[in-house]
Design goal:
single chain, 160 residues, alpha/beta, five-stranded parallel beta sheet, 6 helices, 48% helix, 14% strand
């Protein structure tokens, strides 16, 4: 049963790959202009926000540059204090309204959800699974793809 749930969620991610590529392209533009990534998550997703920040600041592949990223833990209220217009706000399982201030500041707003609404996100990447563990696995895959693709765009001579 779990294998079928994982397979369905993975297939849905493949169908949504265009959205992931679009987010990575937008992120690379922000990084090029001096932007930083500010990640946060609610509940267990706070640890995923820390993982995202570590991935971007400490690349594990030789030759990939470190990109400025910070984890706000479970504190989206820090976005108006630390956020700047050229920055990127990534909310993992954000509550509705968590990205409102970031959007008002002109930050690129990205939400990784499991079907929740997040009207303030310019980019919504939804893990299409009702199983919370499978949704989390899809989110981990998504942010690893974002890291890799952002580097691809940054290393490319043509702008996304």
């Amino acid at each position: 049963m779990l294998d079928r749930v994982r397979e369905a969620a993975g297939t849905a991610l493949v169908e949504d790959v265009g959205a992931v590529v679009a987010v990575a392209a937008a992120m690379s533009s922000r990084f090029r202009s001096g932007g930083r990534l500010l990640a946060f998550g609610r509940g267990e997703a706070a640890s995923d926000a820390a993982h995202v920040a570590v991935e971007f600041t400490h690349p594990v592949i030789v030759g990939k540059r470190a990109l400025p990223a910070f984890s706000l833990g479970a504190e989206p209220a820090l976005l108006p204090v630390l956020g700047r217009p050229q920055d990127i706000a990534v909310g993992i399982r954000p509550a509705d309204g968590d990205l409102a201030v970031a959007r008002e500041l002109g930050m690129l707003t990205v939400a990784l959800t499991a079907g929740e609404e997040c009207a303030q996100a310019e980019h919504l990447l939804a893990a299409r699974s009702t199983d919370p563990l499978v949704a989390r696995e899809i989110h981990v895959t998504m942010y690893h793809l974002l890291w890799e693709l952002a580097h691809v765009f940054l290393e490319s001579e043509c702008s996304p």
